[in-house]
Structure formats: structure tokens, C-alpha cells
Write a structure and sequence with these properties.
28% helix; Helicase, Ruva Protein, domain 3; 4-stranded antiparallel sheet; binds zinc ion
Length: 279
Amino acid sequence: MIEAPEALCLAEQLNRTIKGKRVTDVIVKNTPHRFTFFYGDTDEYEKRLSGKILKRACAHGGMVEIDAEEVRLVYTDGVNLRYYGPEEKLPAKHQLLVGFEDQSCLVASVRMYGGIWCFPTGDFEGSLKPYYESAKYKPQVMTDAFDISYFMGLFKGKEQEKKSIKAFLATEQMIPGLGNGVLQDILYHARIHPRSKVSSLSFGQKERLFDAIKLVLREMYCLGGRNTETDLFGKPGGYIPHLSKATLGSRCLSCGEMILKENYMGGSIYYCPGCQKYE
Ligand SMILES: [Zn+2]
């Protein structure tokens, strides 16, 4: 799953690669995929995109949005987005291919599930609107708008107190672009157990958590994303997670305890029992 650091890297690569190109070919639903969500009638995609010049791309949480004149193209976090130069061999399977006049193209394929939305600018309607708008308009976690006072404000409310820190941080788009993938290392750095209740955290722990969010996401971004994700050219990122299935059972570099895994809330959590005490 693409999360905030990878989405930002992708948007920058798109701006260097496809910005200014004119769309000449559009192939939608080349390969059937049950869990690909499109915007409205897919027959409209070609009409909307043909002849358009792609402009700026930007990241909203784990989504990437491209401005194509009076149309927008959004790829959500479960989509693999790849650029192919004029001479490169194209993959056989994809859900949206956008070709340009110079024979290069942008190919989107969905992994487990994901959205590929093409819609008139400023006109997003339907049941996914709250999801799109929350990713787009909430303060972006990697920008200065996401500051300590905004972060502390997220904890307000009785219902938040009852949640575990994992549920609080990484569900319901509390922080768009911060999901289970980046969460493990953030909590490891903050020395907080994923199951810890929000109500049990001190002000100091919340401050440490804020610093860990900024630090870990910045490091991931600077290294081109996590090594489990690939960039616009299919190259894996350079960030090697401290906690993942690859480090399960190895020793924590900080305290020497063994890294553990548990199933929790429909996903896996990894943690160091020495550094991240559950109390
Ligand atoms: Zn440790």
C-alpha cells in the first residue's frame, strides 16, 4: 500500500516525467479486476482524457492526483502506477493505460483493491466523496500545516480515549497517508506498543509520537519510500523498515530483545517487547 512518503515521491516523479504530455490513447479495464473502483461510467474516461495535457501532480495522503486541464485523475493507495518510455515493453495486465503523443504511457494496475478515478475538476460526487475530500483537505501529515497543536487536537473527544493507539492513528483516515505500513516503525521510534490505549498516554508520549511521525515519514521520503513499494519506474524504495516480516525474530538494534508479531485488528502488528511495553 502506498502511504504518504511514497505518494509524495510518486507525485514528484510524475511532475518530472509526464507533466506537459498530451493524452492520445486511453484503455480502461483492459484486465477485469473485481476490486477496482472507477468513477462513474468508465466509457466516459476516454472522452474526458483524450487530447488533454497533463499538468501538476500532487499527493493527498496516500493518493496521487493529476490535474489534466478540466479533468482530474486520482489513483488511490492500492494502485501500482508505472511510467513506460516509448520503447519499453508494456505489462499485459492493467486497469487504466494513458498513452501520450510521444508513445510513452502511464499504466495503473490495482493490487488487492484500489480506486482509479477520472472526473471533471471540482465535481467529485458519490459515496466516495468523504474519503476523497478527507484525504485532500485535511492537513497533510508531511507538511508544516500538520503541526503539534493540530496533532494534539486529534486526541480530543471521549471516543478517542477508548481506542488503542493503532486504531486511533491508522484507521478511519484520521491521518490520511498514515496506515499500517508506516505505523510499525513510527510506534517503534516513539517506544509505544500498538495496543496501548490512547487514555494511557502521557503528554510527553504524545509529543514523542508526533516527533516520530515526522521523523520516520521524512526518512522514508528521503530514501524514496519503503523497500516494499516501487516507484514510477518500478524501482523499490531505499527505506528498510525496522519492523516487518523481514525482521521478525531478529534482535532489536536498540535493546536486544526479539522482534515479535501478533495479529491485531485484522492485520499484523510488529513490535519490540523491550522498547514498546504494553501497560
Ligand atoms: Zn527494543
